[in-house]
Amino acid sequence: MKTDIASQRDELLTPKQVCEQYPIFGSTQSLAERRWRQAGPAYLKTSEGRAGRVFYRRSAIEKWLDERTVQNGGAAA
What we know:
Structural class: alpha+beta
Strand content: 5-15%
Largest sheet: 3 strands, antiparallel
Oligomer: single chain
Helix content: 40-55%
Number of strands: 3
Radius of gyration: 14 Å
């Protein structure tokens, strides 16, 4: 079955999957710290408080990375 690129960009990933597929984030703990500091990619939370599960859209991760990509001789976009 052929994977649709548009649906793959909106694929939901767990914090563990994010860290496995994007090593730049390090561990799930460092990703959680980015959430706490409001310095990481946008995420979804299933409910308020500690019981809510966290998910990331692949498109949000890619957008966050694109915003921090530095071109030669310049600053991040």
